[in-house]
C-alpha cells in the first residue's frame, strides 16, 4: 500500500523573515524574561512592541528585541512617553526559560546617563540574575523606579545612573505585546488603530497616539526618546549566541 503524502504545515510569514508569524509571537511571550518593576513605581502603564527573527549570526538561534513603551516617565525630569529596550537571544530547541542564551539592555540610551548591561551563558559573559518561578530559574530584566531604564546587571542600577533604583519585584510584570514584523514588511502600521496605545487601555497623552512602530522619524513622546523603529533595528540589542 502506498502511504498517503503527509500534509506540510502551513506557514504564514507576512514579514518574510522565514519564521511563522504566530510562532514569533509565541516565542516572544514564552521566552519573555522576568520583568521586575519596582512595586512603588508611579507610572508603570506600558506595553511591548517586539521584533523576532532568525539570529543574524546563526539562524539556528532567534533574536528578539523588546521595545517597552510607557505612557510617561515620572522620575527626575519626567516627560510624556518613554521607550526602553532590551534584547535576548534564544535557542528555540530548548524550552523556556532554559533556552535564553544571553541578554542585553541599554538604560537611558542616547543620554549622558546611558548604561549598557549584558549577561548570559557565552564565554566571558556575566551570568544573568535569575529568580525562581514554578521551579525554574528565570533571567530577570530590572526596570528602574519611575525612569524605567532596563538593566540585566542590577548592581549597575544605582544613584550614579540618574538616581536609578531597581528592586526584585515579588511577581513579574507581563505587559500586552504586539509583533512589529520586519523593516520592509510590517505586521502593524499604527499602534492606536491596532488597539494597543488607546484611551481604553489607559493611555492618556494624545501625542502618543497613531504612532507607526516603523516610523523612524517620529519619537515616542518627549524627553529626547528615540523612535520605536530605530530601536527595533539597532544592532546593539542583538544579544550574542554561542554553542555550549
Structural domain count: 1
Across the major sheet, the strand order is 6-5-4-3-2-10
Tell how many strands the DSSP assignment holds.
12
In sequence order, what are the helices and strands, one letter per element? HEEEEEEEEEEEEH
Radius of gyration: 18 Å
Low-confidence stretches: none
Helix content: under 10%
Number of helices: 2
The best one-word shape is: globular
Category from helices, strands and their pairing: mainly beta
Mean pLDDT: 92
User: How large is the share of residues in beta strands?
Assistant: 25-35%
Determine the N-to-C terminus distance. Answer: 45 Å
Major sheet summary line: 6 strands, mixed
List keywords for this structure.
mainly beta, six-stranded mixed sheet, 32% strand, globular
Textual characterization of the structure:
- The chain has 244 residues and is mainly beta.
- The chain has one domain (21-237).
- It is globular, with a radius of gyration of 18 Å.
- The mean pLDDT is 92.
- The chain has a 6-stranded mixed β-sheet with strand order 6-5-4-3-2-10.
- The chain contains 2 helices and 12 strands; from the N terminus they run H-E-E-E-E-E-E-E-E-E-E-E-E-H.
- Strand 5 (100-107) and strand 6 form a beta hairpin.
